[in-house]
Amino acid sequence: MQRPLSSSSWLRKFSQKYVNGGSQTQDTLPSDETDSKKEKSDVLTEVMSATSFGSTTRTLKHRHVQLIGIGGTIGTALFVQIGSGLTKGGPASLFLAFSIWSTFILAINNCLSEMVTWIPVSSPFIRFADRFVDPALGFCAGVNFFIFETALIPFEIIAFNVVLQFWTDKIPVVAVIVFMLVAYSLLNVFAVKYYGESEFWLALGKVILAVGLIIFTFITMVGGNPQHDVYGFRFWDPSKVEGAPFAEYIKTGSLGRFLGFLACLIQASFTIAGPDYVAMAAGEAHHPRRTMPRAFKSVFYRLTTFFVIGSFCIGTVVSYNDPHLLNAISNAHPGAGASPYVIAMQRLGIPVLPHIVNALILTAVFSAGNSYVFCASRTLYGLALEGKMPKILQTCTSNGVPIYCVAIPLVISLLAFLQVSNNAAVVLQWFVNLVTASQLLNYAIISFTYIRFHKALKAQGISRDTLPHKSFWQPFSAYYALAGTLTMAFVGGYTVFLPGRWDVPSFIFSYAMIGVVPVLFLFWKIKNKTEWQPLETMSFFDHERKEVDQYEGDLPTKPRSRRCCVALNF
């Protein structure tokens, strides 16, 4: 490809074709005097990096995308709330449930990686549902994911205040909520690169915490603690802990042990995530065809390290029936006080470490909320691009930030003020129940969308070997993920149907989205008379793919960086 960079007229054409096609303009292109090779290369890199497709800019680097995936995945659920699953199922059920559910998330990752790498657009899986299935499914998928992400923002704001109370309850709740909302606004409004950079360092703190707690487990279990207690697998041994390693829940005997495992599986379905957050960064990723496959590949390592090994460690450091753990959960102890790791540290007489853990959990909570603001705003933006939300939501700042799409979830996050007049634990549970089914339905939609995508490729004679990335075990992975996520969506609130356990709020929050999503689908389908996309004529975002091809083709070739933070696979 020829690139006559010395021509200012070429640069003007380039600006008109690729930059001014969006809502923003470029006023800083070089003059005719720019003639050195280094300056030409720098100019091209800068212009290409900020190329706007749909007005957002491709400024998120590989390391940003990697850590954004972690930012939305790891929060209090992995370090604190996981203890609730341990008390219900025991260490073996917890480990088995998290291991099994990780395979479903890996299957969803396979579906997304293939589609998103070939078509790296904003809000990809929402727009894929529109083009590959039915515009009505794209609408309900977008609204469902937006509700899911937006509901998690006040959840993390409330959780931040709870974690803070580990040290003091003197800080007014209102002040904490205002601080969080202002901080999220600053990080998400001014520029994508600031969001990406802040999320990189915040998520790096989560990696340090997760890996540090795993190391803590393996050191202390062999006697590396102040009491020199070689506890090993004591809490897995039924001769030392009654009922271990498979605890009974609700019922006794084999049925009780199965219900304990099921409780852990429900816990895992809320806790484990990842590929959807990576996918949301596709429309703003620099060099997406190279960046996205590497980011999706790293999901496997995150699942294995953080969730599978992490669940094993939780059941190893503390007994499932530890009175301190049961008391901390029932009385909603603040912050790290309810963490199985902190309870283990206190049992072993380790003084300072609980405060370090709480500080890192605090950054983990902040980072998770930051990711939810980003994903919620980009979901709304994707709906606007597809004509399913008011056109004004397509408006972006000169830095490529969809300003109104960022503002709306932040305004909805004012629901966090519910904590002022209600118990924090109660409010947190409201949000958890609401979003769990929503997340599972989102994964089911992604899986079904891939099935249609796979069939359309075959119907149109397009070989998957020609795609920039081909995932493995397809279409089995898609069917496997679809069956698992749909099943768990209906199983999640099963306890309300057991004798003597009926609870109206629990039923509503557990199954509300299962009723809302079909209603949204029918509403859009009837209102707009949409049609099921035929496999033989289905389009694959041809215009958008050509833009990305041109963008990547004009990027200067650079030697791949070997810095450890860039190559980080977590």
Automatic annotation (TrEMBL):
InterPro entries assigned: AA-permease/SLC12A_dom, APC_YAT
Superkingdom of this protein's organism: Eukaryota
Domain Amino acid permease/ SLC12A residues, every copy: 64-530
Topology in the lipid bilayer: Multi-pass membrane protein
Pfam families: AA_permease (PF00324)
GO cellular component, one term: membrane
Any GO MF annotation of the entry: amino acid transmembrane transporter activity
Keyword entries, A-Z: Amino-acid transport, Membrane, Transmembrane, Transmembrane helix, Transport
Gene3D superfamilies the UniProt entry points to: Amino acid/polyamine transporter I (1.20.1740.10)
Biased composition range(s): Polar residues: 18-31
TM region positions: 67-86, 92-112, 132-159, 171-191, 203-224, 258-278, 299-320, 356-381, 401-418, 430-451, 472-498, 504-524
Subcellular location(s) per record: Membrane
Region annotation Disordered: where it falls in the sequence: 18-41
Name of the protein this chain belongs to: Amino acid permease/ SLC12A domain-containing protein
Organism: Panaeolus cyanescens
